[in-house]
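We modelled the chain as a single entity of 248 amino acids. Its sequence is:
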Amino acid sequence: MSEVAARTGFSASAVRYYDQRGLVRAPARSAAGYRLYDDRSVERLEFIARAKRLGLSLEDITEVLRLRDGEECGPVQSRLAEMVAARLEDTQQGIAELRADASELAALSTQFEHAPHAGPCDERCACLVEPPADRAPLRTVPLVCTLDADAVPERVAAWAAVIRRAHHHTEIEGGVRLIFPGTPELVAHVAALAAVEQQCCAFLTFALTLVDGRGQLDVTAPPDAAEMLTGLFAGESRAHEPDVTEGA
């Protein structure tokens, strides 16, 4: 058991626990009474260790091990993919909530930088003052893209095609602005693309307008999503001014 513990990183008591739970095949014993684990048992323990690092519960691990006993990889991979996707969503949601908490705490911390007044706490006291009314509200939409990973390259390519046809691709406060030919076909295409994009990235804000016969799309996002927005709308800035009748 000590050798198994050294190879897997588990303590001897943890190995015994997994043995009792039936997660590891019952080991044989030597003539002296020592537990003898075969390579398959060690491999199962190593799998348990990897699954725990992913944050899977013991119930989830037990389910996957039962699937592994079926000697078919497909069901195991399919179920693991579902579990990991759920963990990813929970983790991203947790990150968004922690950032919101940090924003609230930062605002409150600023209030306490002022010197306290003499006497007991009252309406002048920072302990009772509400955060400034002009402070931006805490983000309630998590910075999570729900688009399937397999569909991401196609979506990025679709936006890249729009950017290539844009007269201008410039940065604005909190996002980017695209100016493109205002033909009905292209405007409709951009509108449809923006609509499906917001379905998977609810934290993005799209404003589509027609200005002097040209389409203008402003895309903004919270500061924490700036890198994600830049990656989606990356493109070379265009300083030239083609004729507004340029084909779509």
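As a brief sanity check on the tokenised model: Residues 162 and 189 are 9 Å apart (CA to CA). The helical segments are 2-8, 12-20, 39-53, 58-68, 73-111, 152-164, 184-200, 226-232.
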